[in-house]
Specification:
Layout: E1 2-7, E2 10-13, H1 17-28, E3 33-36, H2 72-83, H3 89-101, E4 106-109, E5 112-119, E6 126-133, E7 138-143, E8 146-149, H4 155-159, E9 164-165, H5 171-174, E10 190-191, E11 194-198, E12 240-241, H6 251-271, E13 282-287, E14 292-293, E15 298-299, H7 307-312, E16 319-323, E17 327-329, E18 343-345, E19 351-354, E20 366-368, H8 377-383, H9 386-406, H10 416-428, E21 449-452, E22 456-458, E23 464-470, E24 474-480, E25 484-494, E26 498-505, E27 520-528, E28 531-543, E29 548-554, E30 557-565, E31 573-577, E32 589-591, E33 601-602, E34 604-607, E35 610-613, E36 632-633, E37 643-653, E38 657-662, H11 677-681, E39 692-700, E40 708-713, E41 720-724, E42 732-742, E43 749-755
Parallel strand pairs: 1-7, 2-3, 2-8, 3-4, 8-20
Antiparallel strand pairs: 5-6, 6-7, 9-15, 10-12, 10-14, 11-13, 16-19, 17-18, 21-37, 22-35, 23-30, 24-29, 24-31, 25-28, 25-30, 25-34, 26-27, 26-29, 30-33, 31-32, 36-43, 37-42, 38-41, 38-43, 39-40, 39-42
Helix pairs in contact: 1-9, 2-3
The protein binds flavin-adenine dinucleotide (FAD).
The site of flavin-adenine dinucleotide has 37 residues, from helix 1, strand 5, strand 10, strand 14 and helix 9.
Length: about 750
């Protein structure tokens, strides 16, 4: 046996996405960091061992379109898309591994399980944690002033005597309408994934003798859609079981029974189901060996996040991250239950998570991130998705770095001055906190006069690229910045004379992207003759609701087809109405979030024209659409002549760095692992078409001097670019960003230029 002692600034236990994010962020901010992971790979439930795709605030068709997590999560997903357009688990693993390996201040200990905690004499702080490396006969003791428990099971907190909760609270305890009437001891279960492939020859499947279950058609009922099996499918997420056992100590039993479920299901599919002929040549290609856990312990912080918090739209003073995936609770009876496999209730807008939910109320130097944060069962059902967990990890990493710099404990970050510093540091890393703009004092971009080669104005929008029949209600979102809204004009085909009902709304619900019911500006019916390419004018003639999203609703009419355009600007988006759904109760609209056709929208014109894409937006402090597009967009161009954005100050000033935040289409879904590989293989794009590909940064002290090239990038595929100007001019009075090309879009689109 070998015994090693290590001293670090920060030790992170658990290498799921929350632990990876906490460790990488802290290391980048200068902390000597250890990431200790008990598996041979990183990524936790999203790893190649378990293969669940990461989702987040925007990922399900819902009420919030531009919600993709930026910051470290965006860096990771864009990198993965670039290297791994077919989103195969092996390449995703490489992307994750590269992320940690390139950090000089980060040491990763794989196959190492934290099993002991040494507390100080008072029992208030962790002094060290001890882990054993399987296969290396080695014990490690990690000493540090700060720790983070990202184990999912809250193992470190539990060993340290930190209080935690399990199961579901009663409705009365926190006034949560989605909680069960009575508290229950069980939560959500675990799952095992599988993939199958076509071997090209008939292959039998003999159910192993030790598999005690036998499934038949009646066992699945309406809520477990076995027909959703597809070639290369990543398995059925609803193969869920184990919630009735102890999710920590019964892990092996849960694994054993889940494996039996998988093989019994495959036996049914291959040997008795209606798909048996189709599947006769299919073999199991991969079966998970580690159960993915949804829920076990939740550590208690200084605040416990509840449904009431999340529904209130509160911007906590200590908000450090956000979420937006709906409440997604699963019954503990899992695959053997008769209830739906999930109840999904959607948010109208993103919510915030406060720092106080990310450190222990009792163990003073213990942070936590991931699914074991301080939340009720109902709140966990939305915060638990991986991109939200990753963001929580990023917030913890930055908070740990601030504690280390200031020699303080997590709770000592709460005074307003420190908190604002932490929030701005996170925003500087392109992290997003709902309701908090970037306003760092060091950024002088806001003091500049901003001009551009051209600015997009939303007026005529009639470049038809095809038609959609109005088989469902259709919602068209668009930005309005003028005081009045006079008309909207559509390009329609009608197969017979008909009337088309419409409504126009002047405001969104919260910070979301669906209309507030009480903001109706007008409604009516358009009389249409039979014909093609009819210009149909909707009279609004009203004071606009307020500067922000407005909405046109076209009611279902299968006699009408609406023309659509192929190059919609940010914030111009159409969504289909959805019929009432038993499980997705309050999901009314579905928007396109596929990389395959990202910029389709209705052909329409708005009068008066809307100057919503001005150059000044690039220094406004918002880096995604918040109520308005919030970005500079040029007019359409072929980039034969570069588009440019220029910042000019009255006096030249020393500039150390310039940060650029490009549009990367935050409404597109970028799961790093595809559930259905085939869908992605048919569109192996590896960048976002809107992203600026080729750009130059130019600077000079005054207009009398020639421009100097400060930086040039010819193959950019990232949203967040930081250019340090060590060799640049001592003083800059004028700064120009030249855009020479994108990855496909015919406009230059930039959220922010930050100058420090
Ligand atoms: C089957 C399933 C389907 C899901 N579907 C989705 C989905 O589609 N999209 C989505 O985004 N989310 C989904 N979720 C939720 C999401 O995967 C989890 O909530 C999320 O992974 C939690 O992240 P985490 O970092 O806290 O924990 P984990 O991903 O569980 O990572 C924790 C890591 O810590 C390690 N660890 C544990 N104990 C120790 C120890 N003592 N020492 C060292 N290391 C330790 C574990 O091995 C693990 O690798 C799903 C979850 C499950 C189980």
């Amino acid at each position: 046996m070998r015994y090693l002692e290590h001293q670090y600034d920060f030790v992170v236990a658990g290498g799921g996405i929350s632990g990876v994010a906490a460790a990488v962020t802290a290391a980048r901010l200068g902390l000597k960091t250890a990431l200790v992971q008990d598996r041979p790979v990183l990524g936790g439930v999203g790893s190649k061992e378990i293969q669940v795709p990461m989702v987040g605030a925007h990922s399900i068709d819902g009420n919030y379109a531009y919600g993709r997590e930026t910051g470290l999560m965006e860096e990771l997903l864009l990198e993965n898309l670039y290297r791994n357009p077919t989103r195969t688990p092996e390449y995703w693993d490489l992307t994750l591994t590269d992320l940690v390996k390139k950090e000089p201040d980060l040491d990763v200990y794989l196959n190492t399980s934290i099993v002991e905690v040494q507390m100080n004499a008072e029992g208030t702080r962790i002094e060290s944690v001890k882990g054993y490396t399987i296969g290396a006969e080695t014990w490690h003791t990690f000493h540090a002033p700060l720790f983070s428990d990202c184990t999912g099971d809250a193992t470190v907190g539990c060993l340290a005597g930190a209080p935690f909760r399990t199961g579901a609270e009663s409705r009365a305890e926190f006034g949560e309408s989605l909680a069960p009437e009575e508290a229950v001891a069980t939560g959500m279960g675990s799952s095992m994934q599988f993939r199958a492939k076509d071997a090209g020859v008939a292959v039998p499947f003999v159910k192993p003798q030790w598999v005690s279950f036998t499934f038949n058609e009646e066992d699945f009922g309406p809520y477990r859609p076995i027909q959703s099996f597809r070639r290369d499918h990543g398995g059925y997420w609803w193969i869920e079981w184990g919630a009735l056992y102890d999710p920590v100590h019964d892990t092996n039993r849960i694994k054993d029974e889940l494996l039996q479920v998988v093989y019994a299901m495959w036996d049914y599919l291959k040997n008795r189901s209606s798909m048996k002929d189709y599947l006769s040549t299919f073999v199991l290609d991969w079966v998970g060996t580690v159960p993915g856990k949804r829920e076990s312990r939740r550590l208690i912080g200084e605040h416990l996040l509840t449904q009431v918090d999340l529904d209130s739209g509160i911007v906590f003073p200590d908000a450090v991250a956000y979420g937006g995936w709906g409440y997604d609770d699963h019954p503990s009876t899992g695959i053997f239950g008769e209830k739906p496999t999930t109840y999904h209730v959607f948010h109208d807008a993103p919510y915030n998570v406060p720092l106080r939910c990310l450190y222990s109320v009792k163990v003073e130097n213990l942070f936590f991130a991931g699914r074991n944060i301080s939340a009720s069962h109902v709140a966990l059902s939305t915060t638990r998705v991986m991109l939200t967990c990753g963001q929580l990890g990023e917030a913890v990493g930055a908070a740990a770095a601030m504690c280390s710099r200031d020699g303080c404990l997590p709770k000592q970050l709460l005074p307003a001055g420190k908190l604002a510093g932490l929030q701005q540091q996170l925003l500087e890393r392109d992290h997003y906190i709902a309701g908090v703009p970037y306003a760092a004092a060091a950024n002088v971009a806001g003091q500049a006069q901003v001009t551009a080669s051209s600015e997009l104005v939303l007026g005529e929008w009639m470049d038809s690229a095809g038609v959609k029949r109005l088989d469902n209600d259709l919602l068209q979102m668009f930005p309005v910045v003028t005081e009045r809204l006079e008309t909207l004009t559509l390009l329609l085909d009608a197969s017979e004379a008909t009337e088309l009902a419409y409504e126009v709304y002047g405001r969104a619900k919260g910070d979301g992207n669906v209309p507030a019911e009480d903001s109706l500006l007008t409604s009516g019916r358009l009389a249409l003759d039979a014909g093609e390419r009819l210009l149909a004018e909707i009279p609004v003639a009203a004071a606009a609701g307020q500067a922000g999203w407005h909405f046109l609703v076209l009611k279902r009419n299968p006699a009408v087809c609406a023309h659509y355009a192929g190059s919609a600007p940010v914030g111009v988006k159409d969504m289909y109405g959805l019929p009432p759904h038993e499980i997705h109760a309050n999901r009314n609209w579905m928007f396109n979030r596929s990389l395959g056709s990202p910029y389709q929208t209705l052909c329409f014109a708005v009068s008066p024209a809307q100057p919503a894409y001005e150059a000044a937006n690039a220094v406004g402090g918002w880096d995604r659409p918040v109520g308005l597009p919030c970005l500079w967009s040029s007019q359409p161009t072929d980039f034969a002549v570069p588009e440019w954005l220029e910042l000019a100050w009255e006096q030249a000033r020393p500039v150390q760095e310039v940060q650029l935040l490009f549009d990367s289409s935050l409404d597109i879904n970028l799961n790093p692992i595809a559930y259905a590989g085939t869908a992605q293989e048919s569109d192996p794009r590896h960048t976002i078409p809107a992203l600026v590909r080729h750009y130059r940064l130019l600077g000079r002290a005054s207009a009398d001097e020639p421009w100097r090239v400060l930086a040039e990038e010819r193959n950019n595929y990232r949203r967040n670019r930081l250019h340090r100007l060590e060799d640049g001019p001592a003083a800059i009075g004028q700064l120009r960003l030249e855009v020479l090309g994108t990855h496909g879009l015919n406009r230059a689109q930039v959220y922010s230029v930050r100058v420090r």
